[in-house]
Amino acid sequence: MQVTFESPSKSTEIPECSSVVALLFEGNTYTPAVKNLDTMMQGGIERAIKSSDFSGKKGQVLSLIAPAHMSVNRVVLLGLGEIDNCSAQIVTESGASLAVELLKMPCTTATFLLEGITVPTLKNHEIGAHLAAGVLLRSYRFNKYKTNQKPEDHRRIDSLKVILDLPEKADECFSKLSHQIAGVFWARNLMVEPPNILTPSAFVHELMSLKDLGVKIEVLEEAEMKKLGMNTLLAVGQGSENPSYLVVMHWNGGNPEEAPLAVVGKGVTFDTGGISIKPAAKMDEMKMDMGGAAVVAGLMRSLAGRKAKANVIGVVGLVENMPDGKAIRPGDVVTSLSGKTVEILNTDAEGRLVLADALWYTQDRFHPQLMIDLATLTSAVVIALGTKYAAAMGTDQKAIDQLKQTGECVGEHVWQMPLDDRYDKDIDSTVADVKNTGANGAGSITAAHFLKRFTNDIPWIHMDIAGVAWSTETHPLSGKNPSGFGVRLLDQFVAKYYEKSI
Ligand code: BES
Ligand code: MN
Ligand code: ZN
């Protein structure tokens, strides 16, 4: 999809395109473009609004066939809700619901008429950029493996032209968002890729593309991890034919003196549960158990693409959890990189084993000012929060508050769950230092306590994204596809709190 921003031309003519889109706020305060179109259509817009239930609510769309004398096929009205409540997220979501409507029609080009529109919290060019971003985010498709596509599968929006007051400023704002969206799309693609294709080594190969953007990449192979003592990570992969990897990505855009932010992702390319095997129903969904790693990849792409002025380290543990003669068993004890011994009571609680070594390695080597891990870690979080909030737990309350607040701005909501020594006791083992499952409920919290034991008390936040990574319900910005939840959130988090010092 090509997006261009242009100044209004002197003539009042609408450029040739399939659909022309104008905005309306709730309460029907007509924007200049709507007034113009209404005149052009001899009162047709007012009549259409009066004879429908369109009231300008956010995301509401009214699509009209254009009269014969106009050069466009359709005139589309898009509601943005109440003008005083308008925000970047509302504009983005409205753009996304417009995309759904546009994609229903065989239309390939659209022109937005935004001249003169401002709201209390957004400038004209920001409205244009976020609107285009919303359309783009919801236009995501993954048809790679369909050899017999229906015409609807082919449908796409070829180009968006946005007419507004300051096109250069809109371009600048949209350029940042488009890097973010490239990160989101990449994360989504990685999650949809089937597990026979996206093996740990294929994932490593994918990450190599970041080099072109200036990201430095290091790959630790099994032999090296064995030498270092990363036995809990290796334990998860030992039942698989596909070797395990740990990949470190460096984006050094900030002050060289400043300690980095580290983001660590669970990358289980397929989770059968291992010897504690999962039931057959829906086991295919466990191809997205590398969702945390995909978000880390997407974030690095966004940061490098927009040349973020911050130092960020991305670390992903890439493994496949399979049952096999060589696989770990319930009852096994392994020694982690930290030196702590772990009793594996359930081989399906494997994500925390991968993260234990990845987190310890990250803090030990990089001394980050904050470490955030992302993981599709527990089904318990889906019970607790469903698909609308990710869970966050950690040891840096200020950073958690900042993360929650940023989440509200980008519509990626985060809910904090408690850490408490009384939960921590639940994972004391009788034969080793720690066991990999608790027995008294609170599965997401005991999982976080397990991770906490491998953070060496550096400031840390754990995000359990099992419920939000791939929503079963239609999501405003991603539909039924994986969401890429975390890329926009963390990109914005970095922009807000880590780029300010330069
Ligand atoms: N990958 C799963 C968690 C998961 C479940 C992610 C549903 C996405 C959707 C994780 O490895 C797992 O199996 N966790 C177990 C832990 C239990 C054995 C302590 C779980 O939550 O059931
Ligand atoms: Mn599992
Ligand atoms: Zn898992």
What does this protein look like?
- With 502 residues, this protein is α/β, with parallel strands linked by helices.
- The protein folds into two domains: 2-165, Leucine Aminopeptidase, subunit E, domain 1 (3-Layer(aba) Sandwich), CATH 3.40.220.10; 183-497, Aminopeptidase, CATH 3.40.630.
- Helices cover 35% and strands 19% of the residues.
- It has 16 helices and 17 strands.
- The chain has an eight-stranded mixed sheet, with helices on both faces. A six-stranded mixed sheet has the order 1-6-5-2-4-3, sandwiched between helices.
- Helix 13 (397-410) links the parallel strand 14 and strand 15 (414-416).
- The longest helix has 26 residues, at 167-192.
- Residues 271, 273, 348, 350 line the site of manganese (II) ion.
- Zinc ion (ZN) binds next to strand 9.
List the helices and strands and how they pair.
Layout: E1 2-6, E2 19-24, H1 32-40, H2 44-50, E3 61-65, E4 74-79, H3 88-102, E5 109-113, H4 124-138, H5 151-154, E6 159-163, H6 167-192, H7 200-207, E7 216-220, H8 222-228, H9 231-237, E8 245-252, E9 261-271, H10 291-305, E10 311-321, E11 333-335, E12 341-343, H11 351-366, E13 370-375, H12 380-385, E14 390-394, H13 397-410, E15 414-416, H14 421-424, E16 434-435, H15 443-452, E17 460-464, H16 487-497
Parallel strand pairs: 1-6, 2-4, 2-5, 5-6, 9-10, 9-13, 12-16, 13-17, 14-15
Antiparallel strand pairs: 3-4, 7-8, 8-10, 11-12, 14-17
Helix pairs in contact: 3-4, 4-6, 6-10, 9-11, 10-16, 11-15, 13-16
The structure holds ligand BES, manganese (II) ion and zinc ion.
Manganese (II) ion binds at residues 271, 273, 348, 350.
